[in-house]
Amino acid sequence: MKSRKRTRSLILGILCCLMMGSATAQADAPLNGTQPAQWRVIWTADPATKATISWSTKEAGSSHSVRFRVKDSDDRLAEQLAESGRYTGGEFESYYHHARLTDLQPGTAYEVQMVSDANESPVFYFVTAPATDRDFSILHGGDSRSDQDARRRINKMIAELVESSYDNDDLSDDILALAHGGDYIVTGKKMELWSMWLSDHELTTSSDGRLLPIIPARGNHDKGKPFNEVFGFAEDDLNYYGINLSPQVRFTTLNSETSTAGDQAQWLKAELKASRDSNRWLLTQYHRPVYPAVKTPGAGLVSWVPLFEQYNVDLVCEADGHNIKRTVPIRDGKSDETGVVYIGEGGLGVPQRTPKTDRWFLESPGMADQGHHVFVLKFTKEALHGTCLLLDGTIRDQFTRPVRK
Ligand SMILES: [Fe+2]
C-alpha cells in the first residue's frame, strides 16, 4: 500500500514538473538573487477571505508581487503588490515579501505565483477556509529548532499527510492548515537559522503544488525581530489573535513570551466570551505549557486557565517541553470530565525529553511519552478526534472530545 502511494506521489511529482516548470526541482533550493523562494501562506486573520502569501529573496530587487486567480478558471490574473524589507538578524542578508490577499472567496482554491523583478516562482495553490459548517482537520505541532534532519523528515511526512487527505471523498480528513506552537529555531535573532527553517518549510508543499497555510505562535527561542518579519506581523505586534477555521471552529493563538496577564488576559476574556456561543469548537495554542510534562508551569496557569475553564475551551495545544502528552480533563486544578484537555509538547524536529509520567494530570486516561510527532485534529459535528502521529507513521495516541452541550 505504502509503495503504491509512493509510486503515485512520484508520478504526480513528474506530472507537476511538466505542468508547472520546475516546481519540485526548485523546492528547498538555496536563496539566489531575486529568485522567489521560501514560499509560504500565513493565516493570522479571517482565513476564509484573507491570506498572506510570503516569500524571500537573497537580493533586495525592486518590484515584488503575487499573481493570483481562482484555480482552473479563465479569470484574468490579478496582481497584489508585496510589502518588502530586509530581514533583521545578523549579517545574513535576505529580504521578505508579504502580499496580503483580501476579499477572497471562502473554501476556494487559488493559484498563486510570486514574482520578484523578472523572476517567477512555480505556480502554487492554496485553499481558503470554508464558510460552510463542514468537517475538516488541521495539524498541530511545535518545536522544530534543533534537529534539522528530523524537521525535514517531519515536513515531508506533513506533505504526504496533506496530499493523502485529499485523495478520497472523506471531507473530515482534509487538512486545512498547520498550527505551529513556536520554537521554530534555536536562536531567534539569527536570520541564517530562520532561512534554513524557511527553506525546510518548502518541503511541506504537496507534490501537486498545494501550499499548507501556517498559523504561527511565538516560542521562547523566537526572540527578536525576525519572527514578525517571517510571519508578516507588524513590527510591534504581540502575536495573539483569533481566527475562525470554519463558522464553527474558533482557533485562538496566545503569546506565552510576553505578559500573559494585563492586556492579553483581558483580550482573551473578550475573545472567548464573544466566541463561545457561536462556535461548536474553541481551541487555543501557545508555546509554554501550563500543565507541563517536564518543566514548571508557565504564567498562563494563573492568567489564562480560569478563562479556559469559564468559557469551556475544548482543547489547548501546547509546546516547549519536547515530549508527547495529553492531560486528563482539568477543572479547578483536578481531574474533571467537564474540564479542559491539554496536548503537546513539541516534536517537529527537536531532541525529545523524558516526561515525568507521575504527574497527576498525565495519569490515565491522560498519557505522556516522547518521539518526533505531529497531531492531527479532526472536527466533526459530533466530536473532536485527535491523533498523535509519530515520524514513522505510527499512531501513538488517540482521543475524542465530545461536543459540549
Ligand atoms: Fe520553548
TrEMBL record:
Purple acid phosphatase N-terminal domain boundaries: 36-128
Q: Please name the Pfam families in this protein's record.
A: Metallophos, Pur_ac_phosph_N
MF terms per GO, please? acid phosphatase activity; metal ion binding
**Keyword tags:** Signal
User: What protein name does the entry list?
Assistant: Phosphohydrolase
The signal peptide, as residue positions, is: 1-27
Q: Which Gene3D superfamilies does this entry report, sorted A to Z?
A: 3.60.21.10, Purple acid phosphatase-like, N-terminal (2.60.40.380)
Tell me the lineage of the source organism. Bacteria, Pseudomonadati, Planctomycetota, Planctomycetia, Pirellulales
Calcineurin-like phosphoesterase domain location is 173-320
Entries under InterPro entries matching the protein: Calcineurin-like_PHP (IPR004843), Metallo-depent_PP-like (IPR029052), PAPs-like (IPR039331), PAPs_N (IPR015914), Purple_acid_Pase-like_N (IPR008963)
